[in-house]
Amino acid sequence: MMMILEVTEGANIELMPGELKALIASVRGEFAEGLMIGTQPVDGKQLLFINVEATREQVEFLTGSDAFDEGGNQIAFDLGWTVLAVENETVDQSLLLPYFVDVPVFEFDEDGEYIQTGTEPVTDLTGKLQVWSGKNWLY
Known about the structure:
Blueprint: E1 2-8, H1 18-25, E2 29-31, E3 45-52, H2 56-63, E4 67-68, E5 74-76, E6 82-86, H3 93-96, E7 103-108, E8 114-120
Antiparallel strand pairs: 1-3, 1-6, 2-3, 4-5, 7-8
């Protein structure tokens, strides 16, 4: 199931402790590396694009709960991650649009050179969201 998560800026699963990585791996999924394509951090949060064998509820429980190892040591705290979009559910673009980088606008100048003259905000994500091969979002 494809999902887009709002996570803490700079969150990197590869740098997390082994026990926490194993806990996250329990959803048997793929996590795209770094920022979601075309996005930027906003107010200390960023978007993470994932493809997992789990439901929205399972991912929310996993990332919103404290976790302990076999010895009773806490290995994870509420990560504060939020699921913003889920495959097979209509995407609420208003939740995602603030993260998308403005699109550059180019024109030809008087010398015939193609130059950037400004930017325009992204206002519609229909057909533009990153996808895993063979999958689609509902808009």
